[in-house]
Amino acid sequence: MIELGLQRISKLLSDTPLPWRAIHVAGTNGKGSVCSYISEMLNAYNRSGHRKHRKQDCIRHGRFTSPHLIDRWDCIQMNVADQMQVIPTSVFLATEKAVRHRNHRENINASEFELLTATAFECFTRSHLDIGVVEVAITRIGKDHQQFLGDTYAKIAFEKAGIIKPGVPLTYYQQQDAPEIIHVIVQRAQQLRAPIILPHQLPERLPEETTTDYKELQHLHDEMKSVVRDYVFPGRQERISLAALTGYTGEVLLDGAHNQQGIELLGQVVDSLRGADQSKPIIYVTAISNSPERKVEDILKPLLRSGDSILAVEFGPVAGMPWVEPRLSTDVIRIAEESGTKLNVCRAYGRDIAKALQHACRSAEQQLGSHIVICGSLYLAGEVHRLLRDARR
Protein backbone atom coordinates (compact mmCIF):
# COMPACT_ATOMS: atom_id res chain seq x y z
CA MET A 1 0.00 0.00 0.00
CA ILE A 2 1.26 3.48 -0.87
CA GLU A 3 0.86 6.30 1.68
CA LEU A 4 1.86 9.77 0.53
CA GLY A 5 4.02 12.02 2.71
CA LEU A 6 7.66 12.56 3.69
CA GLN A 7 7.41 11.85 7.42
CA ARG A 8 8.75 8.27 7.28
CA ILE A 9 11.63 8.92 4.88
CA SER A 10 12.60 11.97 6.97
CA LYS A 11 12.78 9.80 10.09
CA LEU A 12 14.80 7.14 8.26
CA LEU A 13 17.37 9.74 7.21
CA SER A 14 17.28 11.91 10.34
CA ASP A 15 20.81 10.86 11.36
CA THR A 16 22.21 10.70 7.80
CA PRO A 17 23.92 13.86 6.55
CA LEU A 18 23.13 14.64 2.91
CA PRO A 19 25.99 16.93 1.82
CA TRP A 20 25.74 16.01 -1.87
CA ARG A 21 23.77 18.17 -4.26
CA ALA A 22 20.71 16.64 -5.89
CA ILE A 23 19.34 16.86 -9.41
CA HIS A 24 15.70 15.82 -9.08
CA VAL A 25 13.79 14.49 -12.10
CA ALA A 26 9.99 14.24 -12.02
CA GLY A 27 7.42 13.43 -14.68
CA THR A 28 5.33 10.59 -16.09
CA ASN A 29 7.43 9.41 -19.02
CA GLY A 30 11.14 9.68 -19.71
CA LYS A 31 12.37 10.11 -16.13
CA GLY A 32 14.79 7.19 -16.26
CA SER A 33 16.11 8.25 -19.66
CA VAL A 34 16.62 11.85 -18.53
CA CYS A 35 18.46 10.64 -15.42
CA SER A 36 20.71 8.49 -17.60
CA TYR A 37 21.40 11.37 -19.99
CA ILE A 38 22.37 13.61 -17.07
CA SER A 39 24.73 10.94 -15.69
CA GLU A 40 26.36 10.47 -19.09
CA MET A 41 26.74 14.24 -19.53
CA LEU A 42 28.46 14.45 -16.16
CA ASN A 43 30.79 11.69 -17.37
CA ALA A 44 31.38 13.68 -20.56
CA TYR A 45 32.34 16.68 -18.42
CA ASN A 46 34.79 14.53 -16.45
CA ARG A 47 36.45 13.47 -19.73
CA SER A 48 36.50 16.96 -21.18
CA GLY A 49 39.43 19.17 -22.03
CA HIS A 50 37.52 22.06 -20.46
CA ARG A 51 37.68 20.41 -17.03
CA LYS A 52 41.35 19.55 -17.45
CA HIS A 53 42.22 23.05 -18.70
CA ARG A 54 40.45 24.54 -15.70
CA LYS A 55 42.25 22.05 -13.41
CA GLN A 56 38.94 21.08 -11.84
CA ASP A 57 38.36 17.82 -10.01
CA CYS A 58 36.22 15.12 -11.53
CA ILE A 59 32.62 15.14 -10.33
CA ARG A 60 31.76 12.12 -8.21
CA HIS A 61 28.14 11.32 -8.94
CA GLY A 62 25.48 8.67 -8.54
CA ARG A 63 22.03 7.87 -9.88
CA PHE A 64 18.88 6.49 -8.29
CA THR A 65 15.94 5.47 -10.47
CA SER A 66 12.94 3.20 -10.05
CA PRO A 67 11.97 0.50 -10.73
CA HIS A 68 15.03 -1.69 -10.99
CA LEU A 69 15.52 -3.63 -14.21
CA ILE A 70 17.12 -6.97 -13.29
CA ASP A 71 18.23 -6.91 -9.64
CA ARG A 72 16.90 -4.72 -6.81
CA TRP A 73 20.22 -2.92 -6.47
CA ASP A 74 20.72 -2.01 -10.13
CA CYS A 75 18.60 1.10 -9.58
CA ILE A 76 21.57 2.57 -7.65
CA GLN A 77 24.60 3.38 -9.78
CA MET A 78 27.76 5.44 -9.33
CA ASN A 79 30.45 6.62 -11.67
CA VAL A 80 33.73 4.72 -11.72
CA ALA A 81 36.19 6.71 -13.81
CA ASP A 82 33.85 7.86 -16.59
CA GLN A 83 31.44 4.89 -16.60
CA MET A 84 28.29 4.24 -14.58
CA GLN A 85 28.39 1.00 -12.61
CA VAL A 86 25.79 -0.73 -10.45
CA ILE A 87 26.63 -0.52 -6.77
CA PRO A 88 28.33 -3.72 -5.52
CA THR A 89 25.82 -6.21 -4.16
CA SER A 90 27.66 -6.50 -0.83
CA VAL A 91 27.60 -2.72 -0.31
CA PHE A 92 23.89 -2.55 -1.12
CA LEU A 93 22.94 -5.41 1.20
CA ALA A 94 25.02 -4.08 4.12
CA THR A 95 23.58 -0.58 3.76
CA GLU A 96 20.03 -1.87 3.35
CA LYS A 97 20.44 -4.00 6.49
CA ALA A 98 21.39 -0.90 8.49
CA VAL A 99 18.42 1.05 7.11
CA ARG A 100 15.98 -1.78 7.87
CA HIS A 101 17.39 -2.09 11.39
CA ARG A 102 16.80 1.65 11.93
CA ASN A 103 13.25 1.28 10.58
CA HIS A 104 12.52 -1.58 12.99
CA ARG A 105 14.26 -0.01 16.00
CA GLU A 106 12.39 3.29 15.69
CA ASN A 107 9.08 1.70 14.61
CA ILE A 108 8.91 3.91 11.49
CA ASN A 109 6.92 1.44 9.36
CA ALA A 110 8.45 2.73 6.14
CA SER A 111 7.34 1.31 2.80
CA GLU A 112 9.63 -0.83 0.66
CA PHE A 113 10.19 2.10 -1.71
CA GLU A 114 11.08 4.41 1.19
CA LEU A 115 13.55 1.83 2.49
CA LEU A 116 15.11 1.58 -0.96
CA THR A 117 15.32 5.37 -1.31
CA ALA A 118 16.94 5.71 2.12
CA THR A 119 19.41 2.98 1.16
CA ALA A 120 20.34 4.85 -2.01
CA PHE A 121 20.83 8.15 -0.16
CA GLU A 122 22.86 6.42 2.54
CA CYS A 123 25.09 4.89 -0.16
CA PHE A 124 25.56 8.30 -1.79
CA THR A 125 26.61 9.86 1.52
CA ARG A 126 28.99 7.03 2.45
CA SER A 127 30.60 7.26 -1.02
CA HIS A 128 31.24 11.02 -0.60
CA LEU A 129 29.46 11.96 -3.80
CA ASP A 130 29.27 15.49 -5.13
CA ILE A 131 25.98 15.02 -7.01
CA GLY A 132 23.10 12.58 -6.85
CA VAL A 133 20.76 12.29 -9.84
CA VAL A 134 17.43 11.26 -8.35
CA GLU A 135 14.31 10.26 -10.24
CA VAL A 136 11.45 11.89 -8.60
CA ALA A 137 14.23 19.45 -14.92
CA ILE A 138 10.45 18.08 -15.15
CA THR A 139 9.80 15.69 -18.02
CA ARG A 140 6.72 15.02 -20.13
CA ILE A 141 3.63 14.60 -17.95
CA GLY A 142 0.77 12.22 -18.65
CA LYS A 143 -2.08 10.54 -16.82
CA ASP A 144 -0.61 7.74 -14.72
CA HIS A 145 -1.07 6.84 -11.03
CA GLN A 146 -4.18 9.03 -11.05
CA GLN A 147 -5.48 7.59 -7.77
CA PHE A 148 -2.56 9.30 -6.02
CA LEU A 149 -1.84 12.35 -8.16
CA GLY A 150 -5.22 13.51 -9.48
CA ASP A 151 -7.32 13.03 -12.59
CA THR A 152 -6.33 16.09 -14.65
CA TYR A 153 -3.03 17.23 -16.17
CA ALA A 154 -3.09 20.35 -13.97
CA LYS A 155 -3.53 18.35 -10.74
CA ILE A 156 -0.80 15.88 -11.70
CA ALA A 157 1.55 18.71 -12.70
CA PHE A 158 0.93 20.43 -9.35
CA GLU A 159 1.92 17.30 -7.43
CA LYS A 160 5.03 16.74 -9.55
CA ALA A 161 5.98 20.41 -9.21
CA GLY A 162 6.40 19.67 -5.51
CA ILE A 163 10.08 19.02 -6.22
CA ILE A 164 10.61 22.71 -7.02
CA LYS A 165 12.68 24.31 -4.24
CA PRO A 166 13.00 28.01 -3.29
CA GLY A 167 15.73 29.66 -5.34
CA VAL A 168 16.85 26.40 -7.00
CA PRO A 169 17.11 26.49 -10.84
CA LEU A 170 14.49 24.52 -12.76
CA THR A 171 14.13 23.26 -16.30
CA TYR A 172 11.14 21.47 -17.79
CA TYR A 173 9.88 19.82 -20.94
CA GLN A 174 7.95 22.36 -23.02
CA GLN A 175 4.82 20.29 -23.58
CA GLN A 176 2.93 22.16 -26.30
CA ASP A 177 -0.13 19.87 -26.24
CA ALA A 178 -0.98 20.70 -22.62
CA PRO A 179 -0.42 24.43 -21.84
CA GLU A 180 -2.07 24.00 -18.43
CA ILE A 181 0.92 21.93 -17.33
CA ILE A 182 3.39 24.70 -18.20
CA HIS A 183 1.15 27.26 -16.46
CA VAL A 184 1.15 25.24 -13.22
CA ILE A 185 4.93 24.71 -13.28
CA VAL A 186 5.78 28.34 -14.11
CA GLN A 187 3.36 29.65 -11.49
CA ARG A 188 4.88 27.44 -8.79
CA ALA A 189 8.42 28.41 -9.81
CA GLN A 190 7.51 32.10 -9.60
CA GLN A 191 6.01 31.61 -6.14
CA LEU A 192 9.25 30.04 -4.93
CA ARG A 193 11.51 32.43 -6.91
CA ALA A 194 13.07 29.44 -8.64
CA PRO A 195 14.86 30.59 -11.82
CA ILE A 196 13.67 28.77 -14.95
CA ILE A 197 16.32 27.66 -17.44
CA LEU A 198 14.98 26.81 -20.89
CA PRO A 199 16.84 25.00 -23.70
CA HIS A 200 19.14 27.18 -25.76
CA GLN A 201 21.57 26.58 -28.59
CA LEU A 202 25.19 27.63 -28.83
CA PRO A 203 25.90 29.37 -32.13
CA GLU A 204 26.88 27.02 -34.96
CA ARG A 205 29.78 29.27 -36.00
CA LEU A 206 32.12 30.91 -33.55
CA PRO A 207 33.74 34.34 -34.05
CA GLU A 208 37.45 34.31 -34.84
CA GLU A 209 38.30 36.05 -31.60
CA THR A 210 36.66 33.25 -29.61
CA THR A 211 38.63 32.35 -26.51
CA THR A 212 40.09 28.92 -25.87
CA ASP A 213 37.64 28.47 -22.99
CA TYR A 214 34.66 29.12 -25.23
CA LYS A 215 35.92 26.72 -27.88
CA GLU A 216 36.38 24.06 -25.21
CA LEU A 217 32.85 24.70 -23.98
CA GLN A 218 31.51 24.29 -27.53
CA HIS A 219 33.38 20.99 -27.85
CA LEU A 220 31.92 19.87 -24.50
CA HIS A 221 28.47 20.95 -25.67
CA ASP A 222 28.85 18.90 -28.87
CA GLU A 223 30.01 15.86 -26.89
CA MET A 224 27.02 16.14 -24.56
CA LYS A 225 24.67 16.29 -27.54
CA SER A 226 26.25 13.14 -28.93
CA VAL A 227 25.80 11.42 -25.55
CA VAL A 228 22.06 12.11 -25.68
CA ARG A 229 21.87 11.01 -29.32
CA ASP A 230 23.81 7.76 -28.92
CA TYR A 231 22.90 6.55 -25.43
CA VAL A 232 20.73 3.41 -25.29
CA PHE A 233 18.73 3.03 -22.10
CA PRO A 234 18.04 -0.63 -21.23
CA GLY A 235 14.38 -1.49 -21.65
CA ARG A 236 13.54 1.66 -23.64
CA GLN A 237 13.42 1.17 -27.41
CA GLU A 238 16.30 -1.24 -26.93
CA ARG A 239 17.44 -3.53 -29.73
CA ILE A 240 18.40 -6.92 -28.33
CA SER A 241 19.30 -10.42 -29.49
CA LEU A 242 17.47 -13.51 -28.22
CA ALA A 243 20.05 -15.84 -29.78
CA ALA A 244 21.39 -17.08 -26.43
CA LEU A 245 17.89 -18.11 -25.41
CA THR A 246 16.21 -19.20 -28.65
CA GLY A 247 18.88 -19.33 -31.38
CA TYR A 248 17.03 -16.61 -33.33
CA THR A 249 19.56 -14.14 -34.75
CA GLY A 250 17.22 -11.37 -35.85
CA GLU A 251 17.00 -8.03 -34.06
CA VAL A 252 14.25 -7.73 -31.45
CA LEU A 253 12.74 -4.49 -30.09
CA LEU A 254 12.35 -4.39 -26.30
CA ASP A 255 10.43 -1.49 -24.79
CA GLY A 256 8.98 -1.00 -21.32
CA ALA A 257 6.31 1.53 -22.38
CA HIS A 258 3.29 0.91 -20.17
CA ASN A 259 0.99 3.94 -20.27
CA GLN A 260 -0.88 5.81 -22.99
CA GLN A 261 1.85 8.31 -23.84
CA GLY A 262 4.60 5.72 -23.89
CA ILE A 263 2.58 3.28 -25.97
CA GLU A 264 1.69 5.95 -28.54
CA LEU A 265 5.40 6.76 -28.96
CA LEU A 266 6.18 3.06 -29.25
CA GLY A 267 3.45 2.76 -31.88
CA GLN A 268 5.30 5.30 -34.04
CA VAL A 269 8.50 3.26 -33.76
CA VAL A 270 6.66 0.04 -34.59
CA ASP A 271 5.04 1.64 -37.65
CA SER A 272 8.54 2.44 -38.93
CA LEU A 273 9.35 -1.30 -38.69
CA ARG A 274 6.37 -2.17 -40.88
CA GLY A 275 8.00 -0.62 -43.95
CA ALA A 276 6.85 2.08 -46.34
CA ASP A 277 3.69 0.18 -47.28
CA GLN A 278 3.00 -0.82 -43.64
CA SER A 279 2.72 -4.47 -44.72
CA LYS A 280 5.25 -6.19 -42.45
CA PRO A 281 3.57 -8.03 -39.57
CA ILE A 282 4.57 -7.60 -35.94
CA ILE A 283 4.77 -10.43 -33.42
CA TYR A 284 4.13 -8.99 -29.96
CA VAL A 285 5.14 -10.57 -26.68
CA THR A 286 3.41 -8.48 -24.06
CA ALA A 287 2.60 -8.26 -20.36
CA ILE A 288 0.44 -5.54 -18.83
CA SER A 289 0.23 -4.50 -15.18
CA ASN A 290 -3.08 -4.95 -13.40
CA SER A 291 -3.85 -1.32 -12.60
CA PRO A 292 -7.18 0.55 -12.34
CA GLU A 293 -6.12 3.35 -14.69
CA ARG A 294 -4.50 1.04 -17.25
CA LYS A 295 -7.03 -0.29 -19.74
CA VAL A 296 -5.74 -3.16 -21.84
CA GLU A 297 -7.65 -1.98 -24.91
CA ASP A 298 -5.98 1.45 -24.70
CA ILE A 299 -2.55 -0.21 -24.58
CA LEU A 300 -3.24 -2.51 -27.53
CA LYS A 301 -5.11 -0.14 -29.85
CA PRO A 302 -2.09 1.99 -30.97
CA LEU A 303 -0.08 -1.18 -31.66
CA LEU A 304 -2.21 -3.88 -33.28
CA ARG A 305 -2.77 -4.05 -37.04
CA SER A 306 -4.34 -6.71 -39.25
CA GLY A 307 -1.99 -9.71 -39.62
CA ASP A 308 -0.12 -9.11 -36.35
CA SER A 309 0.27 -11.77 -33.67
CA ILE A 310 0.11 -11.32 -29.91
CA LEU A 311 1.54 -13.67 -27.29
CA ALA A 312 0.50 -12.55 -23.81
CA VAL A 313 2.53 -13.38 -20.72
CA GLU A 314 2.62 -12.50 -17.02
CA PHE A 315 5.67 -11.21 -15.16
CA GLY A 316 6.45 -12.73 -11.77
CA PRO A 317 6.58 -11.08 -8.32
CA VAL A 318 8.51 -7.79 -8.36
CA ALA A 319 11.16 -7.57 -5.63
CA GLY A 320 10.33 -4.79 -3.17
CA MET A 321 6.97 -4.09 -4.84
CA PRO A 322 4.50 -6.69 -3.57
CA TRP A 323 1.52 -4.60 -4.74
CA VAL A 324 2.54 -4.87 -8.43
CA GLU A 325 0.74 -7.67 -10.27
CA PRO A 326 0.23 -8.53 -13.94
CA ARG A 327 -3.07 -8.69 -15.74
CA LEU A 328 -3.96 -12.31 -16.53
CA SER A 329 -2.61 -13.21 -19.96
CA THR A 330 -5.94 -14.83 -20.81
CA ASP A 331 -7.66 -11.49 -20.18
CA VAL A 332 -5.21 -9.71 -22.49
CA ILE A 333 -5.83 -12.25 -25.26
CA ARG A 334 -9.60 -12.04 -24.83
CA ILE A 335 -9.52 -8.26 -25.17
CA ALA A 336 -7.20 -8.48 -28.19
CA GLU A 337 -9.57 -10.91 -29.89
CA GLU A 338 -12.50 -8.61 -29.17
CA SER A 339 -10.71 -5.57 -30.61
CA GLY A 340 -12.01 -6.18 -34.13
CA THR A 341 -8.50 -6.40 -35.57
CA LYS A 342 -7.90 -9.51 -37.67
CA LEU A 343 -4.93 -11.07 -35.89
CA ASN A 344 -2.81 -13.98 -37.04
CA VAL A 345 -2.06 -15.68 -33.71
CA CYS A 346 -3.40 -14.90 -30.22
CA ARG A 347 -2.12 -17.07 -27.41
CA ALA A 348 -1.75 -16.79 -23.63
CA TYR A 349 1.39 -18.22 -22.02
CA GLY A 350 0.89 -17.24 -18.40
CA ARG A 351 4.26 -16.95 -16.67
CA ASP A 352 6.13 -19.07 -19.21
CA ILE A 353 7.89 -16.11 -20.82
CA ALA A 354 10.69 -18.28 -22.27
CA LYS A 355 8.18 -20.44 -24.14
CA ALA A 356 6.42 -17.37 -25.53
CA LEU A 357 9.76 -15.99 -26.76
CA GLN A 358 10.57 -19.29 -28.45
CA HIS A 359 7.17 -19.24 -30.18
CA ALA A 360 7.75 -15.65 -31.32
CA CYS A 361 11.18 -16.52 -32.75
CA ARG A 362 9.87 -19.56 -34.64
CA SER A 363 7.08 -17.43 -36.10
CA ALA A 364 9.53 -14.70 -37.13
CA GLU A 365 11.67 -17.26 -38.96
CA GLN A 366 8.60 -18.51 -40.82
CA GLN A 367 7.18 -15.05 -41.62
CA LEU A 368 9.81 -13.27 -43.68
CA GLY A 369 9.89 -9.54 -43.01
CA SER A 370 8.16 -9.80 -39.64
CA HIS A 371 9.52 -8.19 -36.47
CA ILE A 372 9.36 -9.20 -32.80
CA VAL A 373 8.37 -6.51 -30.30
CA ILE A 374 8.44 -7.19 -26.55
CA CYS A 375 6.47 -4.52 -24.72
CA GLY A 376 3.84 -3.49 -22.18
CA SER A 377 5.83 -3.45 -18.94
CA LEU A 378 9.26 -2.58 -17.56
CA TYR A 379 8.88 -5.64 -15.33
CA LEU A 380 8.61 -7.81 -18.43
CA ALA A 381 11.71 -6.11 -19.86
CA GLY A 382 13.56 -7.00 -16.65
CA GLU A 383 12.47 -10.64 -16.82
CA VAL A 384 13.65 -10.89 -20.43
CA HIS A 385 17.05 -9.51 -19.44
CA ARG A 386 17.25 -12.01 -16.57
CA LEU A 387 16.43 -14.90 -18.90
CA LEU A 388 19.16 -13.77 -21.31
CA ARG A 389 21.69 -13.34 -18.49
CA ASP A 390 20.98 -16.84 -17.21
CA ALA A 391 21.16 -18.30 -20.73
CA ARG A 392 24.61 -16.77 -21.29
CA ARG A 393 26.08 -18.21 -18.09
Automatic annotation (TrEMBL):
Domain of life the protein comes from: Eukaryota
The yes or no answer to whether the keyword Iron is present is no
Q: Which keywords, in A-to-Z order, does the entry hold? A: ATP-binding, Ligase, Magnesium, Metal-binding, Nucleotide-binding
The cellular component terms of Gene Ontology attached to this UniProt record, alphabetical and capped at eight, are: cytosol; mitochondrion
What name does this protein carry? Mur ligase central domain-containing protein
Organism annotation: Pseudocercospora fijiensis (strain CIRAD86)
Family of the protein in this entry:
Belongs to the folylpolyglutamate synthase family.
SUPFAM superfamilies cross-referenced by the UniProt entry = MurD-like peptide ligases, catalytic domain (SSF53623), MurD-like peptide ligases, peptide-binding domain (SSF53244)
Specify the taxonomic lineage: Eukaryota, Fungi, Dikarya, Ascomycota, Pezizomycotina
Q: Which residues form a coiled coil?
A: none
An example Gene Ontology molecular-function term: metal ion binding
